[in-house]
Write a structure and sequence with these properties.
mainly alpha, single chain, two-stranded antiparallel ribbon, about 325 residues, globular, 13 helices
Length: about 325
């Protein structure tokens, strides 16, 4: 009787395992088809746009004016605004996030870790429109005490808020990578007389480097695709800074773009979507051209992340 019951229980488990496997397979296939569908529809309308407007002019023109005549669709000001926000946000998030990860992984006791990490990850759950409003209402007035000429809508406050928003991504993934480093490596360092700081910087961080760098690139990809913060805090006026010269050497003064209004690719898509667009018009199809540009930028960042992760991954 016991043998029959055990066999029946085993068969029931096999049936349920088979059902679970099929459900997971269907969900995985659904995810793949969803991604393929998004890419297809982006390419479909982007190709229509590039049949109406020169791809070379789209990538090299410095004027973006899709609604007001003379209509131009040069993406350079939008790309510049996106890269400025991304770079400045990385300057905020990378050092703070990495140092936070080192503290949580190497210095914090279990009680402190259990309190600080959930509190830190709350930042990831704050709606981005709240970050944008905070930048507009509080950060910009505070910056005005240092920079009296700062515009009400500016790249600097937007960049600071985007950087704060992506700190949890950097710190959480980096901390997980550091925690995965075996304690035997730490103990070997201590046995050689290394201090905790030396062990953290010379042993743990190099051993977890692939995961740390992957967190950087994933966070930067998140910053590139941010919409609401830059829409609210940075403005909707795409500009390129004036190129100045010291003798024959060209340069751009940071105040010409950090303290002034600007626009990113995602903010331009929001602005276009809210305007009176006519379906199948050049302006309407330009939405998909911007989208496909963003797609390739984030795809490149993810490919770099995967390469670094695989190239420098340590197996313990």
């Amino acid at each position: 009787m016991d043998s029959f019951s055990s066999t029946s229980h085993f068969k029931t488990r096999r049936i349920f395992e088979s059902i679970y496997a099929n459900i997971f397979f269907i969900l995985a296939i659904l995810t793949i088809f969803t991604t393929i569908g998004i890419i297809y529809f982006l390419f479909e309308d982007a190709i229509v746009f590039f049949s109406q407007y020169s791809p070379l002019k789209f990538l090299t023109s410095s004027n973006w004016s899709p609604v007001i005549p003379p209509k131009e669709y040069g993406i350079l000001p939008l790309l510049f605004g996106t890269l400025v926000v991304t770079f400045m946000a990385a300057l905020v998030a990378v050092p703070i996030g990495t140092l936070t990860a080192v503290y949580l992984s190497e210095y914090a006791d279990k009680r402190t870790h259990s309190i600080l990490k959930p509190l830190l990850e709350i930042l990831a759950g704050v709606p981005t429109v709240v970050y944008g409003f905070f930048a507009l209402a509080y950060v910009t007035p505070a910056l005005r005490m240092l920079f009296p000429s700062i515009s009400p809508f500016n790249a600097l406050s937007a960049s600071l808020m985007v950087g704060i928003m992506i700190i949890p991504m950097v710190s959480s993934i980096s901390e997980d990578a550091m925690s995965a480093v075996p304690d035997s490596l730490r103990q070997a360092g201590f046995g050689l007389g290394a201090t905790k700081f030396d062990v953290s910087t010379s042993i743990v961080i190099p051993a977890a480097l692939s995961g740390i760098v992957a967190s950087y690139i994933l966070a930067i990809s998140r910053a590139i695709g941010e919409t609401m913060i830059v829409t609210v805090a940075m403005g909707l006026h795409p500009t390129l800074p004036e190129v100045r010269y010291i003798g024959p050497i060209p340069y751009v003064h940071p105040a010409d773009f950090l303290l002034e209004t600007g626009q990113t690719m995602t903010a331009a898509m929001v602005q276009l979507a809210q305007s009176d667009l006519v379906g199948s018009s050049v302006a309407y199809n330009s939405l998909f051209a911007i989208g496909i540009t963003l797609f390739f930028v984030t795809l490149l960042m993810n490919a770099i992340s995967n390469f670094i992760t695989e190239r420098y991954r340590e197996s313990y």
